[in-house]
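note to self: dont lose this again. the chain is below, predicted strucutre after it. 165 aa total, dont forget to put it in the shared folder this time
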Amino acid sequence: RTDQLNAFMRSFADVIRLPAPRLEPGNVEEMLARIEHLTRAERQSRGIAWRTIVDEPLDSVPIDSAQIEQVLVNLVKNAIEAIDSDGRITVRLGRRNGRPAVVIEDTGPGLSVEARQNLFTPFFSTKEHGQGIGLTLVQEILSQHGCQYSLDSPPGGPTQFTIVF
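---
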């Protein structure tokens, strides 16, 4: 069964192969401001606040802006869904080891041990109607960009997704 699933995933990956990123100077801080605006109505209806902390302004980062914006939208959407209602998303911009970095943190309940072990597994989802491809897509895009990334989500929260460009 595992061999069949692996074969299916290879075929699936061939179908949805992402184009190689076209790296150009991009402004991650502006992207996050657009995403904050885009999600404002839903967050307000759920009582979810947004806080941006700029420890150090980010210079232009060599990225494929469309792909990285998709990553950030996906991560913020996951944070909203994890919180459900009455919480906060904190976005922190700065540097890690001299490189531009973004941390997206939510006050949701955190993830179970099983969920943490399977997060980047295609088709695994903690959501009732989830398809389990969101974080797989995030992982693929960030890997193609040469980014370092991590997800820290102890039971009880908070969950932090860190991207180092």
